[in-house]
Amino acid sequence: MLGALTILVPALAGAAAFMLREHRARRALLVGAAVAHLLLTLAAFAAPARPMFDGALLLDEPGRLFLLITSVLFLAAAFYSAGYLEREMRGSRPDMIEGRLFSNSPEARFTGCLLLFLAAMSFVCMARNLGLLWVGVEATTLASAPLIYFHRHHRSLEATWKYLLLCSVGIALALFGTYMLALAGGGEISLNLNALMAAGPTLDPVLLKAAFVFLLVGYGTKMGLAPMHTWLPDVYSESPSVMALMSTCLLNVSFLAILRVRQVLAAAGQAQFGNDLLVFLGLTSMAWAAVFLLRQTDYKRLLAYSSVEHMGILAFGAGIGGAGMHGSLMHVLAHGAAKGAMFLLAGNVLAAYMTKNVSEVRGAVRALPFSGPLWVAGVLALTGMPPFGLFVSELAILRAALAGDRPFLAVIFLVLLAMAFIGITTAALRMAQGENTIPARPEPMSATWPPLALLLAALLLGLYQPAPLAAVLAASARLTGGF
Amino acid sequence: MLSLVEFILVGLVLTNLVLLGTSRIGLCIRMVAFQGVGLAFLPLLGHGDLTWSSLAISAATALLKGWAFPTLLFRSLESAHVRAEVEPYVSYSGSLLFGVAALAVSVWLGGRMPLPGPGVPQLLIPVAFFTILVGLFGIVTRRKAVSQVVAYLVLENGIFAFGAVALRKAQLLVEMGILLDVFVAVFVMGIAIFRINREFDHIDSGRLASLKE
Which phi and psi (to 5°) does residue B14 adopt? Predict the structure, then answer.
């Protein structure tokens, strides 16, 4: 039942946040709920997995893994937003790009939606029924849309509309795929993952493949796989950093949804078909992102395209299977931590320099005594430098690809990684170096500790994995089609 | 009983064609509401015996698709003070031509799909495909935010019809969850339309084009 509490606690806290009028109390509630969620998640790690609500919910190993990274990132986001919301209370002010006046949407709505968003993501981690899984993923879209429109100007509104429409249509296609999966079972079996996997070999192969294509396109839209990723750079560049951080969790749980469907495919003996599609989409995303990373002038969009690249790596690793799946799941953790830190740091840079343009930010290391050096460390972590966790996971995927029957895929993978590395480092390191264009300024604690903690987590993952975590990683890889 | 299902399905095809050919947004909203009410009967007629869960799903569908969505959409249309015309990128006759082609493709595709069992009308899968295609076409070719939401609802109706065939055992929890999500989606989109109108003095989503590389 501990698992169910990770849905219930943020949901109730979210509802309460809408009602609370006192700003301080609401911020305390946000942090309190985040701490409680992490504690519940850790407690659920220790307890054996028990089906809840007639088998509709079950916190199995992959679910635990994704719940853990979601919870950790949310805690960082909660600590960061406590200070961020305090600094943001400035009423109507000119927009830094066009100079038009804009104001924030009510803080209660922001906090409430953030907590509901967490509840929806916990639900997705546990959903055992593919229909409920769909309900959860769509709920994450709806809870997060108001977060994008926190700064009420026309660009964020445009991003919100794009996000709502593209993701809703994508998700509608996933629902179509889910129904098709039911049809593949003759319409008589339920959408429960266990029932579908048990019926595996009797499922109609043609319908099953068609269902997987629809589900991959649908959840792939939410995951940000190219060419369905077009909403992602706009949303990341126009929403507050906290939302950008949380959407990293969003991409992750969409990946989990795809892995769940892949389990059914594997049970029906059609794993190869799914793997080929995942490898293809993964490499497409990496290539697409690499091209846009090389000529990017906006650092928030730079991070967004880096997310597209990393989602490509996840799909590629999952498609390679075996040790690649293990690497992919580890990459979920390492990338989540590193990217989360980078989004918060990008928020700090934006607050100091008041521009999103790469060429207008110089000497961040000197101007921002904490965020500047952390930004450099974050770039190294994100581009897979040793000894960060991303290096280990990318190496695992690369080795699995080399050992597989199509080693040329590993070569393509490596070339695309190199292109992305060049794109990110040229832009991001240039921002850190040089004479500072703004005077050095002190930084608030709440803005520097969360990214530092996340980067340390990314570093730790590369050096040492605690035994329970390693066990869950191995079990998840086994369940989702590794070995 | 079968003839009533077929009657609803033919109604779905006809309303789709009206949706493609009409210029008034108000009529489009009413057509989608008609579709919704018709679809609400499918859970009752699809598979023999009446159960409480299929009754509940049917009632909720009728209430949401027939009443709540049109009310929300009409309200956001009024708040936007815009000319109630669809203003598509593709002409009405072009849209109708697309409709005919989409119908042909759907019938061909539907013929190749296995039916889950006896008692399911042959028409259901082609009609569901056709409705989904019309919805997707509408989202791409309609300029106004309200008409895009209408098209999204058409798409959803098509998927709902398909689900009525695919899921022969009514699953209350799942169906209710899906309905709730679609309701919140339309609600949030309605608020977004209101905001777009306040910010831009129009709801022409084609002019939401400042974010690009």
Answer: -65, -45
Q: Is B163 on the interface with A (CB under 8 A)?
A: yes
Q: Which residues of A touch B57 (CB under 8 A)?
A: none
For chain B, domain boundaries: 2-203
Asked if residue A300 lies in contact with residue A381, where contact means CB atoms within 8 angstroms, the answer is: no
Average pLDDT estimate for A210-223: 94
Query: Which residue's structure tokens are 């159960």?
Result: B51
Q: Residues of B numbered 6-45 whose beta carbons fall under 8 angstroms of chain A's beta carbons: which are they?
A: none
Look at strands A101-102 and A93-94 and give their pairing. Answer: antiparallel
DSSP annotation of B64 = I
- Spatial distance between the Cα atoms of B166 and B182, rounded to a whole number of angstroms: 19
Task: Select from A314, A315, A242, A286 the least CA-distant residue to A423.
Answer: A286
Q: Which residue has the tokens 């593949």?
A: A184
Interface of B with A in 168-207 (CB under 8 A): 168-169, 171, 173-175, 177-178, 180-181, 184-185, 188-189, 192, 195-196, 199-200, 205
How many angstroms away from the CA of A235 is the closest CA of chain B?
A: 10
Do B76 and B148 contact (CB within 8 A), yes or no? no
Task: Determine whether A420 is exposed, middle or buried from the number of CB atoms within 10 Å of its CB (0-12, 13-18, 19+).
Answer: buried
Task: Give the CB-side neighbour count of residue B27, counting CA atoms within 13 A.
Answer: 12
Quick: pLDDT tens for A365-409. Answer: 888 989 999 999 999 999 999 899 999 999 999 999 999 888 999
Q: B144: which DSSP letter?
A: B
> A192 φ, ψ to 5°?
-65, 135
- CA distances (Å), B205 to each of A141, A206, B192, in order? 20, 38, 11
Q: Are B36 and B71 in contact (CB under 8 A)?
A: no
Interaxial angle between packed helices A467-479 and A61-88, expressed in degrees from 0 to 180 and rounded to the nearest 10: 120
Q: Tell me which of A94 and A111 has the higher pLDDT.
A: A111
Of A135, A158, A292, the CB nearest to B208: A158
> What letter would DSSP give residue B206?
G
- Asked if the C-beta of B140 comes within 8 angstroms of chain A's C-beta atoms, the answer is no
Is a pLDDT exceeding 90 seen at residue A201? no
Q: Which helix (H) or strand (E) holds B128?
A: helix B124-141
The answer to whether the peptide bond before residue A387 is cis (omega within 30 degrees of 0) is yes
Within 10 angstroms of residue A89's Cβ, the number of other Cβ atoms is 9
pLDDT value, residue B50:
73
Residues of B in contact with A139 (CB under 8 A): 181, 184
